[in-house]
Please model this.
Amino acid sequence: MDRIVVEGGARLEGCVAASGSKNSTLALMAAALLAEGETVLERVPRVRDVHHMLELLRALGARAEWDAEDPTRLRIDAAELTNPEAPYELVRKMRASFMVMGPLLARCGTARVSEPGGCAIGVRPVDQHLKGLEALGGKIRLDHGVVEAAGAPLVGTRIAFDVVTVNGTQNVMAAATLARGETVLENAAREPEVIELAQVLCRMGAEIRGAGSDRIVIEGVRSLRGVTHRVAADRIEAGTLLTAGLITQGDVTVTDVQPEALEAVLDKLRETGAQLDVKSDSVRARAGERPAPIRVVTAPYPGFATDMQAQMMALLCVGTSSSVVTETVFENRFMHVPELVRMGADIALDGRSAHVRGVPRLLGAPVMATDLRASAGLLVAGLAADGETIVNRVYHIDRGYERIEEKLSSLGAVIRREG
Ligand code: UD1
Model:
């Protein structure tokens, strides 16, 4: 099984381009099922989650393939959806698969998608997705772990989400584009990936207002057409690379990004003492001394992204004093903590908060994580640790980071992948 070996201590310096957003891509791929023509996505990150979604679209009967000339261009044609059924084997590997439910139901009048179940970072139910689809007229039935939905045509209505859910908002918004009449989503997620999806759906012919606020209004249309779209930058990858530079007291510029989407993270990096130079499409981060202590509370956008929590915590581990990191989005997202402690970090857990007392140095160690961002946090820590850190179970990192070891080594990290 692959692992990444980092020799800590090298100062990172230079420029690196962000890849397209993994999370946006997954939502857009699912939404491509709504269109009658071909949807072309450009700047698609070649990461495992995207490959999973590709397999799933094919299993549903869509044509989905990489362009022969551009390896980051993906062509999806859902003219024929022969089999609106998402098998357990594919859904189990990736919860985001559940986002095909809304488009399938809206387009085919029926859908069968395995219930994704729990995952390492918490229970993560899909009740809000189902609440929304049911309100639109979908008859939902749970049959031996498979969610069945039927109902055509869907009919617009008002839906108030009980919790702010990103993929839930995307799933229901996508379904509502083909419903009859008006749908109003209250307490909608405001993440940039929701806005990007709404923009693409509008270019496909949908009528959506208010994306980016907590109230989204969708006027149903009869059909959608395919479009070509270049995926926005991966704000989490960008934040990870900046944090990686800072923990080595380096000077890293991430290009091809939309800095507005990174604001909460940039604010916190500034509070640690980092010097930031923000341009329209790039961010340069230079470290001062060791990071100053800060307080971080994860929250739905525009709050601090839970997907950046582990990487930020790694940075704070070498801070000058005590920081507090509070996780409010997922109930079990501190799996990196015991591993960071094995690397010499001083962290005490207290419910949803981690008290991080900065230490001058971390120590390299073999580590292992059970989710994508936790692994990224350990990798960041390894860059600043004395000696060798071996990050096992690299497949977690490969789910969401494109050529991470190449990108880091282009900045001067001493890093290699071992098979
Ligand atoms: C998306 C992102 C993920 C990120 C998360 C939060 C993708 C592919 N994934 O995941 O990287 O960490 O947003 O920013 O875009 N919840 C319910 N019922 C539901 C749905 C969610 O209770 O039906 C809860 C979850 O358990 C969690 C919270 O709502 O506690 C937020 O989850 P949600 O925003 O849905 O995360 P995802 O959209 O799955």
